[in-house]
Amino acid sequence: MAMLEVKNLSTGYGKVTVVNDIAFSVEAGQWISIIGNNGAGKTTLLKAILGLLPASTGTVSFDGRDVTKLSPNQRIRSGMAFVPQGQQSFGGMTVDENLHVVADRYGSEAQARYDEAVDAFPVLKEFAGRRAGLLSGGQRQQLSIARALITRPKLMILDEPTEGIQPNIVADIQKSIRSMVEDRGIGVVLVEQKVQFAVERCDTYHVLASGRFVAGGEGGADQVEAAKQSMRV
């Protein structure tokens, strides 16, 4: 049984349908990338999966349960984690404080969860005492993902994680996502415009254009050019 199963999902804003008849699934320990140009409907699709937008048709099931009508908070509590676009953090707080504000909710497990998160991004140990607002964009993105990892999610949903990030840290983030999948068994749904980052190490990709899947296939370095070509069509 798939961890996440999206069936015939359509959604939009008011009477305007933005995403049409989308279907895909994600297994535990599988990385699915959804690529597309600006305006393709990528973020709108994620909002529907997370419950931030209602489904006009279709269903979303998670961990064997129909969650189509559940609130975002209920979906997050069931094991989803969301890293939104834009390197979200509390800029006036230190890296350590940003992590502990999440970890400390877990009582006796707080330190173990904190340690797991910083092990995924060792640079956060180096900058533990620095205010998050003084970090580079890439370091803030690593912090955002680490905060989500503290919740020990079954499914990680990432929206444009490479936006505004320097290439060397992009590579580190790609490696860390692959590690989440292989070492922790986390399912990943990632939406991106940067095809190489999204396709090179994912398991499967889908190309979204005008709110519909128009192409897709297995991931891998040898599939990057085909994926780029599909986006141009």
Radius of gyration: 17 Å
Task: Using the coordinates shown, work out and report the CATH topology of one domain.
Answer: Rossmann fold
CATH level-four homologous superfamily name of one domain: P-loop containing nucleotide triphosphate hydrolases
At CATH level 2, the architecture of one domain is 3-Layer(aba) Sandwich
Terminal Cα separation, in Å? 33 Å
| CATH class category label of one domain | Alpha Beta
Helix content: 25-40%
Order of helices and strands: EEEHEEHEHHHHEHEHEEH
Largest sheet: 6 strands, mixed
How many separate helices?
Answer: 9
Number of strands: 10
Family: Belongs to the ABC transporter superfamily.
GO biological process, one term: L-amino acid transport
GO molecular function, one term: ATP binding
Pfam family, one: ABC_tran
Overview of this structure, please?
There is one protein chain. This protein is of the alpha/beta class and 233 residues long. It has a domain of 162 residues: Rossmann fold, CATH 3.40.50.300. The strands form 2 sheets. The chain has a 6-stranded mixed beta sheet with strand order 6-7-8-3-9-10, with helices on both faces. Strands 2-1-4-5 form a 4-stranded antiparallel beta sheet, covered by helices on one side. The longest helix has 18 residues. The mean pLDDT is 93. This is ABC transporter.
